[in-house]
Give the backbone structure.
Amino acid sequence: MQSKKFLKTKENFTCEQCGLSVVGDGYTNHCPQCLWSKHVDIHPGDRKASCKGMMRPVQVEYKSNTYIIVHRCVLCKHTKRNKTSPVDNFEALLQLSAKQYKK
Ligand SMILES: [Zn+2]
Ligand SMILES: [Zn+2]
């Protein structure tokens, strides 16, 4: 019974873009493999957004030793900045940042 409670706060989810089972750590708001996110928050962590659209990673910013992914919702075009996590797929991150400079 206790483990159930524990799992709930960890917020595991399945990525709807690539199907990866993501084990949440309380900060995870995007898939570490394909970097897609989901439009679930109005304010970070509140899960109050009714949109639930998939959020495409459109840009990578590099600021004070941290990579920031810019996500854009495919449904409502809302954009949001998210810090990357150490488990994120660095290849995918590099590909994304290469793409934005090629345009
Ligand atoms: Zn994914
Ligand atoms: Zn949205």
